[in-house]
Structures are given as C-alpha cells and as structure tokens.
Fold these 3 entries.
Entry 1:
Amino acid sequence: MQHVSTRGAARPLDFRGATLAGLASDGGLYVPETWPRWDAGAFRDLRDASYAETAAAVLGPFVGDSLKPAELAALVDAAYSGFAHAAVTPLVQLDHRHWLLELHHGPTLAFKDLALQLLGRLFGHFLRDEPAPLTIIGATSGDTGSAAIAAVAGLPGMRIVMLHPEGRVSEVQRRQMTTVDAANVHNVAIAGSFDDAQAIVKALFNDPAFRARHRLSAVNSINWARLAAQVVYYVYAGVRLGAPDRPVAFAVPTGNFGDVFAGYVAHQMGLPVSALIVATNENDILARALSAGDYSRGTLQPTASPSMDIQVSSNFERLLFDLHGRDPTALAAAMAGFEATGRMAIPEAMRLEAAQLFRAERVDMGEMAATLAHTLAASGQLLDPHSAIGLAAARRLAGTLEGPIVTLATAHAAKFPAAVEAATGVHPMLPARVAGIFDRPERCVRLPAEACAVAAFIDGLPA
Ligand SMILES: *Cc1c(COP(=O)(O)O)cnc(C)c1O
C-alpha cells in the first residue's frame, strides 16, 4: 500500500517510509492512497479474536509489504502485552444505551499509549540495521511526552530527548517522564513556556546539519502509523457489540482530530458506524467547523481537559482531503488560505457530506463536572474530565441515534485528580502499577530556553 501526501507534491511512500517521515516534505499529511474495504465476513472473523490478533488483521492492509505477517504479529504482541487489562481496551457498560471503551490501561494511563507503544517498536524494527542511533525529539505540555518516553525507553537504535516547560506540567506528568530509568531517555526542563520549548524543537529541525548529524525524528500526532494503530480499537469494540450486523456510534473527546479520524477510517473500511460524535470543550473550532462550516482559529482557553485545549486540529486536514474529492491541488490551496488568514469557510455541500457521519458538540466545564458526578452516582464509574466531555456529548445525542453508543475513555481519572475531586468529592487513586513514580529518583537536566543550549546538550550525549 502506497501513502500519498494530502498536498500532492511529496512523493508517495510505503508504510515504512510514511512511518519514518511523519510529516510529508510538502507540509501535507500522509494517507493511504485508497481505503481498504472489508466485507462483513472479515469483521465476523474477528468475533473471537484477541486485541493483538485484531490489530494484526486491521493493520495488515496498511502495512502491505513493509512487514512480513509474522513480524507484524510479533510487534503488536509486544506492544500490547504490557497493558494492565487482559482485554487491552475493555468495554464497560454504563446503562442500556451507553458503554465506555477504556483506553487507559497502558503504561501512562492515557489512550496515546495504544498508538505509541506500537510506533516505538515500528521505529525500532525499521531502523534495526542502521549504524547511528535515531534521536527522537519533542516538546510536551504533559501527556504525549510521557507516552512517547514509555514507548521508546530501552529500545535499541534510538534515544529520546523530551523538553517540558519547567514548573508547568503537573507533578504526576513530570514524574511519569523523569522517573523512567533507561539510558536512552533524556528529559530537559526548559526555563520557559511550552511555546518556547516547541520553538526550540522547530529550530533544531530547521538546522539541516544538526538534523542529519543526529538523525532527528518526531513521534507527533500527525504520524500516519499512530492513526492506523487507533483504528484497531474501533473495530475491536464494534465487533464485540455486534458489528457487522449492528451499527455502533462512538463519542470521541477530540483535540487534534487524530482519534476521531481513526474512527472515520474504520467506517471507510466497512465497519457499520452510525455516527462519530466529535466532543470538544470550550476550544470548539471543530464544533464550529462541522456545524456551521466556520473553521477559524480562536484564542486558546485553558480548561480542566488540557489535552483538548487546541486552536487548530492538525489531523482535520486528512478529512478535508477526502471532502475535496482527494484533489491535492484544491486542498493545498484551501490550507494555504487557512494558514494565511487563520480561517476557512467549508463549502456547505462538503459540510453536509461530513455531517452524514460526524456530529459535533461543545461541552463546557459545568456540564463536564455534572457528568462526572452523575456517572459516579448512577454507574459507579469515576471518569476523567476528557472522557466526561465525550459522555456528555453522547448523552445529548442519544435520542437521535439507534443502537449502542460507545464513549472513548481517553485517560484515567488519576491523571487529572484536581478536576475529578472538585466535581465528585472523590480523590482518584493512581493504580498501584504506576504509583511507584513517587518513590523513584527523577532524572532531568535544566536548560535555558535557547536552541543553542539544547543543541549543545544533544551534541554532548554519548553515541
Ligand atoms: C490527546 C488526548 C485527547 C485528544 O485526542 P486527539 O487525537 O488529539 O483528538 C483526548 N483526551 C486525552 C486524555 C488525550 O490525551
């Protein structure tokens, strides 16, 4: 399977190439050149399959010749064997209509582990014969950094340098990064903001000599392999609830549009998905885009669901590509207009086409907190703020949908203890398997918010 750039000027790549490239060289995002299409029998065949078996089946068509079937099977086995629940992503019933799909049983308690645990191993496999190590560099305001570190720690052939703004990530988030005891993990606390840290990463990527010397790479959410890995749990949950013979709706707490786009891919492959509910917080660019055609940058509002506090949803470009009939020239022009003006008017015909599947709802902090409290009282489940936003949106739309509605529980409540306690009066406990972060020593260097200081640090790392 070849993968094409949404903007059409970069050359198509196979799965290995698209995984290692991340962003396309023309600024676009890689997508498979066609969506694989399964018949009903292919879904029925997965009724008794484990998560890892489902992953191998779903990823097979995308991976193509980049991996032998036995290699793919071994990589998914390794990626998901470290999860704390035997079902990997268990479904939990809330009432006669609503289910939770728990995506927080991985090492860092958020759904990003599902993609990154596999992505780290894909990098390791694809680069196993390379002489010099790959240096993965990133800036994080919390969740992605710990998931990326957990994915790369101890793997041969690569190291990770993760920048975070000193004093501006929560203690749990910081300790999840700094207590990882692996020689190839390097944490850097930057004396500055998250934007400063991100600007440093950009500056290092924009220095061709430095980039080549350290074989710099990134594992951010525009990487196609991450999205492909997320298609798996839609299929796994859908089949368990009766697909292909019964349609299922999914409600997805959304930031960068990566997770919900994976649901769209499952639908394109033939999974009967009756609706994809795009749940946003007060940062509602997606809700405005999908309900009024107004895709325009707003001002960032900090909320109790920080992983959804975004102004621009980078993966939305992949849906826009399909809505533009996969015409890269038209899409590139639309994106250039957006990048210049900060706004894009989505033509009504395209918006209506998207609305056949996507339903967008904005949920504010008050409704999020009420949903947390109600769900604990009614079903005994302690949600995290992101998942509560998804469930609030699902409840609003339940009357307009048929069949089961699955809300993606994207993080464990203990990742966001303050907001959960404020809404419910209950202090969520960290699961025992991660509570050790409070006992282990932290490893982190402090550097000024200057690209040259970080470059010198990386140059000084042992090879
Ligand atoms: C990253 C994240 C999201 C948003 O996912 P996207 O793929 O960016 O839409 C939602 N919830 C949690 C807990 C996250 O970490």
Entry 2:
Amino acid sequence: MLPSLLISLIFATLTGGENPAIQVILNNKGLQYGKNVGAGWIQDNLKRVTLPDISGKISIGFLGSVGYTLTGVSVKQCDFPEPSVQFQEDISGFKSSISGLSVALTGGWRTHYGLIHDGGSFDLAVFDVDVTSTAKLGEDADGHLSISSVNCSADVGDIKMRFRGGASAIIQFFVDNFRGYIVGEMERHICPAVNQYIDAFEHHLQAMNVSFPVDPFLGIDLSLTNLPSVDASSLTLGLKGDFYQIKSHAGPPFKAGPFTLPKQPGFMMSVGFSEFTLNSASYVYFSAGLFSRLVNDSVIPPSSPFHLNTSSFGPYIPQLPKLFPDLLMSLQVYAREMPVFSLQPGLIRLGLLGSIKAFAIQPNATLTPLFKLNVDSKFSGKTWISDGLLKGSVEMDNLTLTLVSSEVGPFQVSKLAHGFDIPRMKHAQLVNTVLKVEEVCIHLSESLSLCLPLSVLHIYLMLFCFFFF
Ligand SMILES: *[C@@H]1O[C@H](CO)[C@@H](O)[C@H](O)[C@H]1NC(C)=O
Ligand SMILES: *[C@@H]1O[C@H](CO)[C@@H](O)[C@H](O)[C@H]1NC(C)=O
Ligand SMILES: *[C@@H]1O[C@H](CO)[C@@H](O)[C@H](O)[C@H]1NC(C)=O
Ligand SMILES: *[C@@H]1O[C@H](CO)[C@@H](O)[C@H](O)[C@H]1NC(C)=O
Ligand SMILES: *[C@@H]1O[C@H](CO)[C@@H](O)[C@H](O)[C@H]1NC(C)=O
Ligand SMILES: *[C@@H]1O[C@H](CO)[C@@H](O)[C@H](O)[C@H]1NC(C)=O
C-alpha cells in the first residue's frame, strides 16, 4: 500500500509539468448561460421545497427554556432576483452573489415548556437577503477538479412573522421583541448552508471518474494536468487526454507537446485536442496488434465485379491465375509502424505505413504465400461544422506501393494501384447525403459520402479500412 502510494506521489510530482493534450476553455458567455440555467432550476424547484423540521430552545430569562419545533415549512412565494456569477482571478475561482432575495414561508409551530404543549401555524417573510460567496478551484492528487469555499457573507434585511393558534400572542410578543436576535440567527446559518452545498459539490467532483473506458480495449484519461487557470473572463482546464490499454493501464511512451487553444470569447466553450490524443490511441491499438486483419472474399459484396480470387488478379498479375487457377485469396493487412497523426492549422494529416501479404487458399485450406506489398500512404483531412454537423473531407495525398517479395515472380505494381481506385467497403455505409447529428461524413467523391459515428477512433479505423478494402 505504502510503496504504491509513494510511487503515485512521486509520479504526481514528476508529471506536474505535463502538457495537457486536451484543453477546455469556459468563457464568460458559457458561465452566464450556466448561471441562467441554474437560476431557472432553483426558481422552479424552490416552490416545491419542504424544509426539514427546525427544532431549538429559546431561553426566556427566569422562566428557563422553551423548546420549539417549526414543522412542514414550505416556500409560499419567492422573489428570486437574478444572481451574479463571475470569474475571480485572484483566488482562481468564482464569486457568486444574490442580493434582494425575499422568501415567504408557511408552516406549523409547536412549543413545549415542561409538560405544557402548544401549537399552531405561522407565516414568515424574510426580506432583502444578500449572500456573497467566493469559492476557489483546485486540483487534487488524483487529477480531479476540486472546489472549496474561500469566504461567504450573508445579510438578512428584515423578517416578519405571524403566529396563529394556541398561545400565539406570547410567541408573537417574543418574536416582535427579539427580531434582531432572530435575524442574526438566520444570518449565522446561511453561510454554513452555502458551504455545505459547496462541500456536496466537491464530493461529487471527487467521486467522478477521470478515466473512462472507450471500448473494451481502450480507456481515456481525462485527469487534470495542472491547476485550473482563471482570469477575468475565462476558466481554462488542461486535461491529460491520453488513451491507454485498459488491461495493463499502459499509455504511450511519448509525451504530449505544448499547444495553445486560442481564446474565443464569442463562444461559450472551446475544446481543443492535440495530436497526442489521436496518436496515443494509435499507439495502443498498434502495440496490441489490433491494426492487423485477415481479409477474404466474404468482405466483398457478391454483386461486385471484382472478387478476391486469383482470376480477378489476372489483369494485374498475369501469371497468378496460370500458377494458381481459380483459387480464392486472402490478404493479411497490417500496419508496419504506428500510424501517426499530425494536426496543422485547418488540416489533419495521417501517415500510414502498411503491408499486405497475399495468400492463395488451397482447396485443403492451406494458405500459400503469393507476394508481399508495402502500402505507404498519406492522407489529409479537413473538418468543419455546418448546419450543426461536424463534417469532414479526406484526401489521399500520396500512395506508394512497393513489392517487397514475390513467390509468383515479378509484376508491375503500378497496375495493381488501379485496384485501389475504388475503395470497397462492406462495414461502412455509402450514402449520398449528409446524415444525422453526431456523425462525421467523409466525402470520398462528389457524390459519395461515408458517414460515421462521431468518434475519433472510428474515423481512424475507418480510414484504415477505407484504404485497404
Ligand atoms: C472574499 O475573498 C475575496 C478574495 O480573496 C475578497 O476579494 C473579498 O473581499 C472577500 N470578501 C469578504 C466578505 O471577506
Ligand atoms: C467509476 O469507475 C468505476 C470502475 O471503472 C465504476 O465501477 C463506477 O461505476 C464508475 N463511477 C461512475 C460515477 O461512473
Ligand atoms: C473469411 O473470413 C471470415 C471472417 O473473417 C471467416 O468466418 C470465413 O471462414 C473466411 N472464409 C474463408 C473462405 O476463409
Ligand atoms: C473469381 O472472381 C470472378 C469475378 O472477378 C468471378 O467471376 C469468379 O466466379 C470467381 N471465381 C471463384 C473461384 O470464386
Ligand atoms: C494442401 O494442398 C497443397 C496444394 O495442393 C499441398 O501442397 C499441401 O501439401 C497440402 N497440405 C496438406 C496439409 O494437405
Ligand atoms: C510520395 O511519397 C514518396 C515516398 O515517401 C515520395 O518519394 C514522393 O515524393 C511522394 N509524392 C508526393 C506527390 O508527395
């Protein structure tokens, strides 16, 4: 236990200066939007609130103390002015305040003084409540965002209480004469209640997972890399953003480079990814051997004029159907090196160094090796948002086919390259128009688009398949 704790502490200090691979900026516009949603929610829910019973004792000079209980207290009416929330640079947090809040409450009262029990109902109006609270953001040892109260002040303008039933006249007398005391008691309770809310929020933050499984194989670590940074108009969070193998929790051996996400105050929020995030996924898939597939004729639609058999390859490799007439073929397609993404302004580049080993499937199911090709390609892609959809286009910038070895004698590789002109896909859907929200459409040509779920990994895998099928 202790050694692992020490290791994680050392690790935490060592990684303190780590570059974030994902950055999230919350702008003032987003903060104000959040505030309005929150305030609307509070206003809608306040009327449905029934407060827990409030019990206490009041000592009345020589009479000793009278126990009281306020029960079934509910909000009858609430004048909820617009709260204000702003970034507070000096403490790296927020300052929230509400001023001029008024609430009318109604409920029942009970008192007990020795054996004498009494009760009735009451109305309570609290006027001009001002509350100001500042809270700072931080980071805990596990990379969770944390929040804690810095200071709080509460001021209650005035109260009005009306008691009915029982010996309410006596209570009324007490309330009228000790108004200042009651106001003070209320003020004394507001800030602890506010702090309790902040603590509850902090508990939620601590309980939140900062690592999530993305698929059965891959997880993503979204813990903070450094303290949240707050200036007068925005909050910036730097997240680790690396993919790791779920089984071993091993991430990539390379580190994220620095990148700056430009501030765009016109947006509520900006999220930026560095190429490290994509490349860490690539690394994990590659190192686990997942960029390797055995492809056979079953992936090609029966109606296709081209089939994965030795006769179909005749036009490109004339000797193949002569040496191995009418045999089905299979291809082992794999990445030779980790596919690498690089992000440039407005452009995503992807380099794929792949190989294909071709086999003839003998009638007794033995695989006879035919040839091995290296297939090196470069893609560039663009993404943009229009009509609320994230869209993208991908172009193949360069394709180099090299014959590495051949068991069937030499052949013209350039001829074979034509076979790749029309990508054949079974697992991808070809459509003419852009599809639903949260899909990425990759335009293969003027009329064909490939639409995929919005997941970087899927784009990634599909690019891979797109190329090889
Ligand atoms: C609360 O803390 C903030 C930041 O330190 C400070 O500016 C403000 O004056 C404090 N307010 C009170 C009521 O102490
Ligand atoms: C956090 O992760 C653990 C283990 O992966 C899981 O059991 C738990 O349900 C997750 N909690 C939340 C709130 O997602
Ligand atoms: C083709 O591959 C599929 C799955 O990859 C497999 O189920 C099938 O048996 C293979 N067919 C041949 C003829 O090898
Ligand atoms: C090979 O593919 C061609 C189409 O290219 C098809 O006409 C032929 O039937 C296939 N042969 C075998 C053995 O599958
Ligand atoms: C399968 O067939 C091939 C070609 O006919 C032959 O060379 C090979 O020895 C056979 N393998 C087995 C295990 O029968
Ligand atoms: C394509 O890649 C090869 C090998 O990397 C290179 O020699 C060639 O110049 C590239 N062609 C283009 C058009 O970029």
Entry 3:
Amino acid sequence: MQELYDMMQTKFGISQKVLTYCLQKEEQIKEQFQKADEITEYNQLKVLSAMQKNKLSDIHFAATTGYGYNDLGRDVLENIYADVFCAQSALVRPQLISGTHALTVALAGNLRPGDEILSPVGIPYDTLQGVIGIRKEKGSLREYGITYRQVDLLPEDKFDFDSIEKAITKKTKLVTIQRSKGYQWRTSFSIAQIKELIEFIKSIKQDIICMVDNCYGEFVEMKEPIEVGADLAVGSLIKNPGGGLAPIGGYIVGKEEFVENAAYRLTAPGLGKEVGATLGITSSLIQGLFMAPQVVNASIKTAIFTSKLFEGIGFSVLPKSNETRADIVQLIQMESAENVIAFCQGIQKGAPVDSYVTPEPWDMPGYDCPVIMAAGAFVQGSSIELSADAPIKPPYSVYMQGGLSWHHGKIGVMIGLQTMVEKGLIQL
Ligand SMILES: *Cc1c(COP(=O)(O)O)cnc(C)c1O
C-alpha cells in the first residue's frame, strides 16, 4: 500500500493528515459498502438477464440513418429497458435530449387541454417548473390549458395525505412524483414510500396516471417505480442508466398506451416509435446500461465516503453515512461560501478532464444567486460522472453526485477536502 500512499501524496498533493483521516473513515463504512454491493449484484444480474432474454447480438449495434425504419438495435434496446424496469413498453432515444426533455415529452404526450397535473411531493425540479408553467416560460403546458396543483410535504418530509386527497379532482389526470431530492434539502423517496403514495392516490382515483421522475434513482435499490404501481418512469441517460457511456439520451418506460402517447409527441402523430435513426450510438447506450449498476455502485460509495468525511468534521449531511439511500446525490452543508468554493475547486482538480481549470461562482440564468459547478466530465454536463454544484447562499449546501469508478470518486473527494485544509478553512 505504501506505493499507493506515495502516489496520493506526490501526484495529488494529499497531506499525511488528510490521508490518515480519510483512511480511518473509510475503515468505518465497510458495512454500508457491503450493502451497496449486494444491491449492485442483483441489478447487474437483472440487466444481464434482460440482455440474454432479448437475444442481444452484435447485429444490433449497426447504425441506421434517415428515417430509421426497422432499426433492430433500437427495438432491442427498448425491449431490454422495458424488461429491466418491468414495464410493458419503453421509449429510449438519442432524440430525447435530456431528462427534462423526456419528462416534457411524457407529460405533453399524455395530457390534453383541461387536464390537471398534481405534484404531491412539493415543488418539482427547477427545469420542470418552466415546462409545467409554474414559472412563466414560452410553450409551457400552462399555455396549452393544462393546469397544475401542488401539495407540499409535511415536516420530516412526510406525505400530506389529507391535502393530497382534497387536491384530487375530476380534472386530475396525472400525478408527478420526484424520487430524488433534486436541488432541495429533503430526503429522497424510497421505493417503499413511492409505493405507499401511489397506492393511496389510486385508491382515490384509479385512472390517474402516476409518473415518477426517476432521475438519479435508477439501480440504487433493487426495485424500480413501475414494480410498485407507477404507470410511467422517466429519466436521463447522462445520469444513472447511461452508465457514463451514453453520450446523450433519455428514456420513458411504463404502460404501453402512455409510452405510445409520448412517442407520438416525440416524433409525430401517426409515426410514434416506428421512426428515429440511431446514427451508430446504440452500442454505447446498451453497453452503458450494462455498466450502469457498477457505475451507480461507484457513485453510492463515493457519496457514503463523502458523507462520512464531513460528518466527522461536524457538518450537516444528507443522507448521513449510515442511512439507506434512495438516490446518488449527497448534500453537505458547508457553512460558508469559502468552504463551498474550495471543495468544488478541489473536486475539479481531481477530474480526468479539465483538471487544470478553476471553477468560480457565476450568475447563471434562472438562479437568484451565483452558482459554482465542478465537472470535469467526458460527456458534457454528465452528472453520473463525479460532479458538485452549489448555489452560493446560506446554508451553503453542496450537491455532489456521481463517480464512474469508486477509486476516482475517492481521490476526487480527498482532493476536495485537502483544498479546504490547505486554505485553513477546516481542521482535522
Ligand atoms: C437531472 C434531473 C432532471 C432533469 O434532467 P436533465 O437531464 O438535467 O434535463 C429532472 N429531475 C431530477 C430529479 C433531476 O435530478
């Protein structure tokens, strides 16, 4: 091991003090790592078995162009996704350019003027606010006569069942449930909690479409939303299920009818899933899915380790290092702008790409304060790769996620900590 420690110290500037502290903390999270490994093994077999069942073959990796009729690889990819997520049908496309776009297509395809959307879990993810029209944007669903209602969570992030019941009316067509905390200080919902919520909603109105925003949640547990009653689950391929290899894409899985409605919106009425060339990226999407359980495992381990390190220093973290996880996001309340900036700059320093640039807070459009982002990723904006971002305002929360490999995640976070120590911001 001495060679390893020498490498950490000479090539990455980790001091003896930081090294000793980190190794000691790593020793204390073995049990959590073992639990993560068990889930990963199960999910790896789930993915493998779906690939075998669908007789995946190298012929499926061929590129199609133009309209993309009879794209065998695309069809097999979608059948594999459907099986992995226990869904009747799947739409998995490079033409779905992001998670937000996939969610937009799922919503717009299944809603009509006069329908109402209900979020029973508080305000949805930032970009979705514009899509729905909670925040005024051109082309929002609101402009098409689709209304929105929201029920906030109770203290301790409990569902407000009474208010949810009252909020469901004849107009309520679709309920959107965000699994991950996104950019809020709340717990992410476990599959068991999502099950309870969906069962409650269906007991009030059977035909409501329950859609889960599954971003950051895939392969963190053994089950996925469709298995507990969701009608649709939607996510991004530059997060968990793309395994770091997908260069673009989104997915929508669920009931045949609802996925088809989404497909008519993505392409055109009458065309649906039958068109859409894959231009040669199907192999990356399929191989990415194959790798996804492992990559999620690396992200989870990186998150647990980070949580443990900062708990030890006395910062508030969410989740705590020994808490069950429902997504790959780790929150740390850094208590000052200097801490946030130093940590994010350290994460950037440890990246495989753009390690020599220094991120600074900037006034990003759509935010009410400066934001700092650390991301040295192979795929632009990919947050299954180790990344951290933070709005520079109290309580100075950093949102950290990803890590293509645990050993990279580990050194990345250690450099983050080292940067804070070097600046005299924290004492170990
Ligand atoms: C990332 C994310 C989205 C949007 O995905 P993009 O690919 O960034 O558009 C939506 N919801 C949640 C919870 C997310 O984490």
